[in-house]
């Protein structure tokens, strides 16, 4: 089985490629902007006919699209999150129409949730900013492309290698540099929001199941933990792992992204993924945070 992973050097993509390499008989090829990739592909700028040539040379049985942008201006987000999937679908129709496409979406496509009610795949989508809107547009492209495709709508990934662009990685980096004595003070933004944190290794496992499922899949499947956790709980747990003995102060007016501030509660129902894939997350949040803290060693 030949599997092409786009965005293979990013946070999710690296874990996905590593997981897929464990499949018996699988040959995993990496595509992306990194010079170390097997195939140089920038979904923000590549033309459909150029990507079709790459796909024809690979002749993949499955393509996993982990490429995307989480930050930047609206143009940057649209180029990778919306144009990218559109170009990929067009190239696949021309060069590898029988390949299965697994595309990584985002729970941000749903927008604000109602506390106590995990959102199902049929819930209304009301993204609050350019990130969620461009991811939703990418999902619309994939689900309407007519290919053998599935969108995995991923919650907030956490675990080894989490980048500083997200809260878990940013908090980890901050704690590595901070004074951890009893007089230390960490001043953060509002930590009252609830999020569905899912271990990145469980996301990679879900991708494996989606790639290898013998039957056609539903257009969209939620991939999360199925529970909403206060962001404050995550922050304090990381502080404990770091041995931080100081004080954490919250300031609602600073340190929180606009996207986070407008979504106070988010949780995904994951029953459809369990039924379709036989998948459920294996790692707890405590295990994910421990792996995140230990990944690079603590000072």
Automatic annotation (TrEMBL):
List each copy of the NAD-dependent epimerase/dehydratase domain by range.
3-224
Gene3D superfamilies per UniProt: NAD(P)-binding Rossmann-like Domain
The source's superkingdom equals Bacteria
**One protein family per Pfam:** Epimerase
Q: What protein family is recorded?
A: Belongs to the NAD(P)-dependent epimerase/dehydratase family.
The protein's name:
NAD(P)-dependent oxidoreductase
- Annotated organism of origin: Streptomyces prunicolor
């Amino acid at each position: 089985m030949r599997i092409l992973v786009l965005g293979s050097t990013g946070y999710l993509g690296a874990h996905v490629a590593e997981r897929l390499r464990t499949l018996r008989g699988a040959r995993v090829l990496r595509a992306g902007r990194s010079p170390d990739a097997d195939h140089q592909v920038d979904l923000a700028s590549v033309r459909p006919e150029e990507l079709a040539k790459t796909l024809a040379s690979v002749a993949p049985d499955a393509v996993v699209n982990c490429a995307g942008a989480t930050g930047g201006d609206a143009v940057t987000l649209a180029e990778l999150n919306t144009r990218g999937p559109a170009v990929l679908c067009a190239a696949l129709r021309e060069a590898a129409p029988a390949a299965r496409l697994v595309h990584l979406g985002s729970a941000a496509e749903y927008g604000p949730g109602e506390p106590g009610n995990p959102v199902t795949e049929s819930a209304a989508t009301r993204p609050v900013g350019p990130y969620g809107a461009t991811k939703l547009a990418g999902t619309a492209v994939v689900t309407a492309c007519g290919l053998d495709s599935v969108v995995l709508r991923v919650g907030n990934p956490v675990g080894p290698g989490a980048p500083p662009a997200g809260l878990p990685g940013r908090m980890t980096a901050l704690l590595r540099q901070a004074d951890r004595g009893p007089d230390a003070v960490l001043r953060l933004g509002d930590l009252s929001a609830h999020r569905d944190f899912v271990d990145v290794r469980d996301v990679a496992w879900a991708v494996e199941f989606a790639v290898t499922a013998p039957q056609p899949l539903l257009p969209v499947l939620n991939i999360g933990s199925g529970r909403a956790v206060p962001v404050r709980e995550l922050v304090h747990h990381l502080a404990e792992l770091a041995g931080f003995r100081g004080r954490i102060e919250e300031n609602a007016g600073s340190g929180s992204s606009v996207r986070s501030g407008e979504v106070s509660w988010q949780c995904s129902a994951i029953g459809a993924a369990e039924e379709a894939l036989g998948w459920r997350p294996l790692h707890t949040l405590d295990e994910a945070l421990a792996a995140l803290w230990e990944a690079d060693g603590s000072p």
